[in-house]
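Rotation project, supervised by the postdoc (A.L.). Task for the rotation student: set up a whole-complex structure prediction and record inputs and outputs verbatim in this book. Inputs entered:
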Amino acid sequence: MNKINITVEHLTRVEGHGNIVVNLTDGRIERIQWQVSEAPRMFESFLRGKPYYEISHITSRICGICSIGHALCSLKATEAAMGIEISEQTLLLRKLALHAENIQSHILHIGYLVAPDLFRVGSVFHLVKTHKETVLKIIKLHRLANEMSDLICGRTTHPITLIPGGFTDIPSKKQLEDLRKKLTEIIPVCDDLSQVFLENIHMLPEFSRETEYIALTGDEYALYDGVIGSTDTGKHPIESYEAITNEFVVPHSTAKFARHARESYMVGALARFNLNSDRLSPMGKICAKRFGLKPVNYNPFMNNVAQLVEIYHCIEDSIDIVDKLLEKGLKKNDNAKYTVKAGRGIGAAEVPRGILFHDYTYNESGLCTKANLVIPTNQNHNNITKDLEAFVPMLLGKQEKEIELNLEMLVRAYDPCISCSTHYLKVEFKR
Amino acid sequence: MKKKRIAVIAIGNELMGDDGIACAVLNALSKEKTSQNVDLVDGGTGGISLIHMIRKYKKVIFIDSGDFGGNPGEIKIFTPKEAVSTKETMRYSLHEGDLLDLIHLSEEIGEAPESMKIVAIQPKKIEFNAPLSPELINTIPEIVRDIKSLLEGF
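Outputs recorded:
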C-alpha cells in the first residue's frame, strides 16, 4: 500500500499558526484539512465594558500588520453608532492611511514571503545572498510604506493619531510634499520589482477553481468605503453582513469559517480586482495588463499579482490624495463635533487581506455592550480548504516534497493572517 | 546618511515571562544618566522592521534573552559575528524572532551600524503571562552596569 501523509505543522512564511494535513492511500484521498491551531483571542469579549474612545486602539492590536485597517474599520463602526460625520480632510487622510498599510502589507507579503518561493529558496535571508538588488528594492518600498504610515498615523504599526471624528495630529504641508516626492520616486522601483516578478511568474502553479468573490464595491476602487459586492449575487448593504458571511465553526480549527452563495468564497486583493478592476488607477490597469490579469480570474495564486496591481493603485491614488489635500490647504482643527449616545454601528473596510467588518453596540455612556468582528482570513479559510481539495488530485504524480511545497504556496497566496482570525468555539464543542 | 547616534534596543515580549528581561533592563537604564547621544528603544519582538530601525544608528547594543545553556540570569556579551561562529558548538539560539538573521540581512544590504553588541541573558522560564524569574530580576543592576560600561567604551 502506498501511503502519503503530509503534515505541514506549522506552515511558515504566513502570519500565525496553521497546519496543512493531507492523507493519501494508493492515490486515494482520505483527508485534506486546513487546520488553524492558534489560541482564540477573545477580543469580542473583552471589548465589552470598554469606552468608545479606547475601542479602535484595542482592536488595532488584533494585528501587527493590518492594525491601521482594524483601527479605521473600528472608527467607522463607532462613528456609525453615534452618528458622527467626518470632514472631507479626515476622509482623505484616512484613505491615505489605508493606502500606506496596503502598500506596507502587500510588499511584505510579495517581497518577503512569496519571493523566496519564486526563487526556490527558504527565506528572504537566503534571497539576499543571490538577489541582493531585488531585496534592496523590496526593502526600499517597504520602508517608504512604513514612513507613510508613521507620518499619517503617528506610528508604523498600531496607529495613535486616529480617533473618533478625526485625528489628534496631521502632517504638515512640507511633510506631505516630501511624501509626494517619495511616492513619485518609488514608481521606477515598483517597475523593476514587477519585471522580476513577471520573469518568475511561471514558478506559480497553474490552478483555477470557480468560486464566489466578495469585496466592497462602489464608485471608486473601493477600499475605505462601499457596499458589499459579490461576483455571484451583486450588491448588498453593509448592514446585511451577517447574511453574507454566515460564519460557522468546525472541529479542527480555532478560527471560524464562512460561506455565502456557494460552499465557500474568497476575499482579498483578487476579490477586489475581480469586482472593481475597471476603477483601478491607470498604472494599476497597466500592471494588470502586463500580467494578463483579467476579471473574473479564478486562480488564487493570482492574488499575489492582484496585490502588486494594488501597490501601483495605492501609490498613484495617494499622490492624487496628497494633491487634493495640498490644494485645499490643511486645517488643524477639523475634527467632527459629537455627543456620545447609545446605538449600534457597523463598519466595513477593505484591508490588505480582504473585507473586514466591525459591529458594536454602545450604551448611553458610550460603553461597548456587544461586539462582533468578522476578519478577512476567517472568510478565506473555507475557500482555502476547497482549493486544497481541488488542488491535491492535480499533484498526485509528484514527489511528496513537491506536493508539500505546492500546497504551502497555495495557502501562502491567500496571505493568511491567522492570528487575526482566531475566535472562540463555545457552541460547536458541545456536540 | 551620516550616522552619529547610539541605540540600546531591547528585544522581547513583556507578556512572556523571562522574554521580557530586556524591557525591564531598558526601564532600569532609563532611570540612569546616559549620554544625550544614546537612544533607549523598545524594539518589541523584533521582526523585519528592525532593519529599518537600526540603519539610523552608528552603534547599537541589543539586549535580548538568549538560551545559551547557562544558568538563569547569566549574561553573555558578544558581537553578531561571534554568535554565528559559535552557534554550532555553543548552542547559541536566540529564541523567537531571529535577531541574528535580521542583523545579517542588514549587513548584506550595507545598512548595518558599524558596531553592534548583543547582551544576552539566560532565561529560566519563557511562558505566557509569567512574571520575571527572581534570578533574572536580581541580575538587572549588573546588566545595567555592563551596558553603561559598554556605552563608555563604544
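Student's summary: Residues 6-153 of chain B form a domain with the Rossmann fold fold (CATH 3.40.50.1450).
Supervisor addendum: Chain B touches chain A at residues 47-49, 51-52, 98, 101, 104-105, 108-109 (CB under 8 Å).
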